[in-house]
Structure formats: structure tokens, C-alpha cells
Amino acid sequence: MTEVPNPAQMTQDPVAGLEGVVAATTSLSDVDGQNGVLVLRGRTIEDLAGKVSFEDAVAHLWQGLGVAEARSVKYAFGEARIAAFAVVPLLESAPDSLSVYERMQLGLAALPLNRGLPEAIAIGGALPVFLAAAHRIASGTRSLAPDSTLPVATDLLRMLTGETPPEAHARALDRYLVTILDHGLNASTFTARVIGSTQSDMKQAVLGAMGALSGPLHGGAPGPVLDMIDAIGSPDNADDWITGALERKERLMGFGHRIYRTRDPRADVLKAGLKLLGPDNPKVKLAEEIELAALAALKRAKPYRPLDTNVEFYTAVLLDAIGIDRALFTPLFATGRTPGWCAHVLEQQQTGKLIRPASHYVGPMPSESEPLT
Ligand code: ACO
Prior knowledge:
This protein is mostly helical. The protein has a domain at 222-322: CATH 1.10.230.10. It is 53% helix and 3% strand. A three-stranded antiparallel β-sheet has the order 1-2-3. Strand 1 and strand 2 form a beta hairpin. Helix 6 (119-138) runs parallel beside helix 7 (152-161), helix 7 (152-161) crosses helix 8 (167-179) and helix 8 (167-179) packs antiparallel against helix 13 (265-276). The protein is globular and about 60 Å long.
């Protein structure tokens, strides 16, 4: 009998992760993994996050895509939040078993489009409303209507908690949303571009991208980062805990990256945001100690592979510091990344080209197969 390789067991399969493959031409963002530089349409992430609002960063990214030239993104997102709130009763009547993320996906699936708002605005504006409503449904409290006059970060915190957020918290969340707005051809953005390339609608592309984002190797990491910090508990335990995890061949969440061979610049942008929240948070100090221990342990365990801190580590610490429940970390990531996904879909659709790569067949040939009896 012919030995047939099983692709699932081919860990050395050179094409399995499409590593190094260039699969799109884009003006949206560039990730320089050697030097740790992230550029969004000509501006570094340090030049945007903490300096311009989420809405202005989105307007910057969307230039030339025909979405928001004529109107302010802040105003249009406000309108979109109001429109999306009409879908919230459906979310309230959905089964209790749905996670916050699944309820957001349900809301998106049910969101009426073609009501005068460009799809990217209708969808980008809706997700904060669905996130907040899904959280309040899960915690047994009444969903709150959006206030279209507020910036996205402020209104999202208000809809989550029912209170006007401290200015520092709104600024920290705004910085986070800008930091994660777009990031080259990551797994979820690639998914969005593939779906968009079939001329499917924007909703389907964002739903698919949300699916890709949710896994722990991508946008599902920050909740487990916080679990790790809590499990370690004190700097004295960090080394033993981390060494044990690496000996068990576990991955340390919040470390390592496909593209960066140095520090993910977004980690420092978020860490700078943490410093602005005040110097006295003991969990931030603990996280810094854990980070140092993890980097040293990773260097010992994998000397052949540069592994550094990625965006998810300080995402977890920052969002926790402003009181966000860890169950909302991935939903928030999707909320901030959605305008980036939409931009990529529009850019891909401008090419008019279907994404349809080839695969390398390693199964048996018909001449090798037994005749059917
Ligand atoms: N902890 C321990 N070891 C790691 C880690 C980690 N976080 N990341 C990579 N490695 C090791 C692997 O075990 C492997 O070692 P080996 O060659 O001895 O088997 C080597 O580094 C290469 O790993 P790959 O999986 O081939 O590298 P890849 O580029 O595909 O991985 C990834 C990138 C998936 C992000 C990885 O670093 C990881 O799993 N990190 C932890 C999860 C995480 O933080 N995800 C968020 C990423 S950022 C984002 O998506 C927004």
C-alpha cells in the first residue's frame, strides 16, 4: 500500500502557514517585522494612538475608499449606533447560551444595510452597540441606548457600565482602539479579503473575519494572558510557573508573532497608555515582572527563535486596568479591527479579482487507487 502523507501531521510542511507569501497589494498598513515598525497609511502607530481619536484614525485609514469623504466619521458612527440599537431586542430574545461574541455576530447578521449609510459605517458603528448590549444581557441588566453625540470609546464605556466613564478610561480605550485598527495581512484580515473578493457583502466578510480573530493564536489571546497573570499571582512565582508551562510545551499567551522578530510596537503604545492611568496599579507592576521573566525563559527555551511581547500582553493589562471584564477582550478587539477589515474588503474589491490560490496535492493518484468493487 502507498504511504499517504497526512497534511495535518506534516509539521514541517513549508506552505502550511503561507509564511512569507505576499497575497495582497495594499496602501493601508505595513508591518516591518525586523525593525518593529507599524505604519498606517504613512503614519507610524506611535504617531496615531493617543494622538488622534479612533474616529479620526478610521477617517485617515479610509481615505480614498469612498466611504467617509463627505461626512465626519464621528457623526456617521453616531448615526450608525442609533440605527443598530433597533436590533438589540433580537439580541435580548436570543438563547442564554450565546457568548457575548456570538450575540455580536447575531446582531451583525440581523443588521439591516442599505438604509443610507455606507456598509462600512453601518457595521463599524453597530459593533460597539452589540458588544455593550450583549454584555448587559449576560449580566442581567437592561441594554442602554447609544448617545450619538459622544465619541465611540466614551459611548461604549457608558453603554457597558451605565455611567459616564472617567476621562482617563475613555482616553485609554480610545488609544487601544486606534492601536488595533489595522495590521497588515493578519489571519482575520486575510479572511475578510478572501470573502470580499467573491463580491460577497461586507457583513459576510466581517462575520468571517470575526471567526478567524476568535482563536487563541490570534485575537483570543488576551483573556488567557490575564488568566496567566492571575495564576502566577506574585513575581516570586513567575519563573517557576513560566518554566513549568514551557516544559509542558505550552505557549505563553501574549508572546511571539508571525511577522515581528523584535518587540511588537503596539505593546509599547499600550504600555505608555497604562502609564497615563497612574503609577500605582499593583497588577501593572506584576505584569511587568512577569513579562521580564517570560522573555528570559523564552530565550532559554527557544534560543533559535526570537520571541518577544506582542500586542495582546498589554491589551490584557490595559483593558483590565480600566475595569473591562476579560470576556470582553476579544469582542473589543473585533470592534476596533472592524473598520480595518472593511477597508481591506473595499481595497480588495477595487481590484475586481477573486482570491483563489492553488494547493499542493499529496494524496494518491487514480492509478494508485484500488478499483471500486
Ligand atoms: N510561547 C512558547 N513558544 C512559542 C510561542 C509562545 N508564545 N510562540 C512561538 N513559540 C515557539 C513554538 O513553540 C515553535 O517552537 P519549536 O520550533 O521549538 O516548535 C516556534 O516558536 C515557532 O512557532 P510557530 O508556531 O511556527 O510560529 P508562528 O509564527 O506560526 O507563531 C503565533 C505565531 C501563533 C502568534 C505564536 O507566537 C503563538 O502561538 N503565540 C501565543 C499566542 C498569542 O499571543 N497570540 C496573539 C498573537 S498577536 C495577534 O494575533 C493579534
